[in-house]
């Protein structure tokens, strides 16, 4: 995956990252509803900012402000007992990585975003199907589907 990310255009990677962040946001919302903690509106605000400015000049002060706001509503796994905190953490961290990426275009941030959704799917698989080996999880249809989706997205949109 890293090879494809490294060969992709910045504009494609921004759209790719936004897509993943949007797909992870529901997990944060579920966590917010269950624990009455955090603020999904801040994540949506950050994603919307990245959508609206993806090809325009970035306001670094605004991005740093958004990073600070997202950090404040990023849950700590030590503070909550259920697996939902991991999903919400991945969602918030993906948005933080997106903000970092639009500021500096370091493609490691996109790789991290890609990993956050894979990890979330992995956690959900393990919740339902405990006892799977790492190889079984890597070969699980949901993981394979997500990897194919990501590869196809980058190839199609970078053409």
The total of helices stands at 8
- In whole angstroms, how far apart are the ends? 17 Å
User: Oligomeric status of the shown chains?
Assistant: single chain
Structural class, please? mainly alpha
What is the mean predicted local confidence, pLDDT? Answer: 95
Share of residues in helices: over 70%
Output the radius of gyration: 16 Å
Low-confidence stretches at least 5 residues in length (pLDDT < 50)?
A: none
Provide the descriptors you would attach to this structure in a database record.
DUF416; 159 residues; YP001051499.1-like_dom_sf; DUF416 family protein; 8 helices; mainly alpha
Would you write up a description of this structure?
This protein has 159 residues and is an all-alpha fold. Helices cover 77% and strands 0% of the residues. It is built from 8 helices and no strands. The model has no long low-confidence stretch (mean pLDDT 95).
Compact overview of the structure:
This protein has 8 helices and no strands. It is mainly alpha-helical and 159 residues long. The longest helix is centred in the first third of the chain and has 26 residues, at 10-35.
């Amino acid at each position: 995956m890293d090879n494809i990310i490294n060969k992709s255009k910045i504009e494609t990677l921004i759209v790719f990252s936004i897509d993943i962040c949007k797909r992870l946001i529901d997990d944060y919302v579920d966590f917010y509803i269950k624990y009455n903690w955090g603020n999904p509106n801040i994540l949506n605000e950050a994603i919307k900012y990245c959508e609206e400015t993806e090809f325009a000049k970035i306001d670094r002060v605004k991005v740093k402000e958004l990073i600070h706001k997202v950090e404040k509503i990023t849950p700590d796994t030590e503070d909550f007992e259920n697996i939902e905190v991991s999903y919400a953490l991945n969602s918030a961290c993906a948005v933080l990585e997106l903000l970092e990426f639009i500021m500096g275009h370091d493609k490691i941030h996109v790789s991290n975003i890609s990993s956050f959704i894979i990890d979330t799917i992995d956690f959900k698989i393990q919740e339902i199907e405990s006892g799977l080996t790492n190889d079984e999880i890597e070969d699980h249809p949901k993981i394979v589907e997500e990897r194919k989706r990501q590869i196809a997205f980058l190839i199609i949109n970078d053409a």
